[in-house]
Amino acid sequence: MFSALRKYLLIPRLIRLSSAAPKDPRTAWDRYWGSVRSTGATGDVLWDSGSDHEMNGYLPKLAQLDPSLPIVDVGCGNGSFTRLLAEHFPLALGLDYSANAVERARMESADVPSTAFAVCDMTSPDAPGTVAKALADAGWTGDANVFIRGVLHVLDRNGRAALAANLLPVVGRRGGVFLAETNFRGTPVDYVSHLGATRKSIPAPLEWAIRGLPMPGHFGAAQRAKAFPTSDWNLVEDGATNIETRPLSNPSTPDVIPGYYAILRARQPN
User: Fold this and answer.
1) In sequence order, what are the residues at sequence separation of 6 or more whose Cβ sits closer than 8 angstroms to the Cβ of residue 223?
2) Residues 262, 73, 108, CA angle at the centre, nearest 5°?
């Protein structure tokens, strides 16, 4: 029993660390990406495993999307998934509302063909127009697929609904949405303990995220149903998946967070 309760001794330290995070999410994310020194398996970014293993698990599901359409990577960060998506679609457009993230993604993707990047807040009313312009600048018009990984679980309910509504004109009749989100069912203390935090030490990438970013939530079938209502969306498939982080407990193996995935298409009028 003592060992089960011992993790809660982390609470004062977590409160102290998280109190330094900017209250405005945009400021927090832009400051975070502006201070990133390195990415990949040995880098600063908690959710960048430096591996294509997670993506390879998604490929059979992504094969259900129209491969002739471009794909929009919402919340692309440093572009690690954008670059992998470009291997399977004619264009991968990475979007992030942090200008510093987009700058880093462009730098890391400079020698990767069929990638493009743009600053865009997908919860904003002007987001569909921004996406259309970015696609047009890259030589594409019309419908597109959408990839979302690890974005919805850090938004509130209103933000999730706004993002989902803004995707409707992006996907149109032919495109589809693939999303994968962390769905850890436990307290924030359970979450950080799962990733190796103890009262004595916290893995550096995890501590850095706690210091600088809003506390994440979880996103599963119930949250998806609210954000993507059946009046607008058809659920094609969903289920459990794994979200991989940068190696923390073992230097050669990514750590894993329980996750949820879904494939959706816009409901067409009769």
Assistant:
1) 152, 153, 160
2) 135
Tens digits of residue pLDDT in 142-199: 999 999 999 999 999 999 999 999 999 999 999 999 999 999 988 888 888 888 888 7
250-262 core/surface letters (b: 16 or more CB in 10 A; e: else): eeeebbebbbbbb
Cα distances (Å, whole numbers) of residue 101 to 94, 122, 208: 10, 15, 16
Q: Is 157 in contact with 135 (CB distance < 8 Å)?
A: no
Q: According to DSSP H, which parts of the chain are helical?
A: 2-6, 11-18, 25-34, 53-62, 80-85, 99-108, 127-137, 157-171, 188-194, 204-212, 221-227
The greatest distance separating any two alpha carbons of the chain, rounded to the nearest whole angstrom, comes to 61
Distance separating alpha carbons of residues 189 and 191, to the nearest angstrom: 5
Angstrom distance (rounded) from CA 197 to CA 238: 30
Is 0.90 surpassed by the pTM of this model? yes
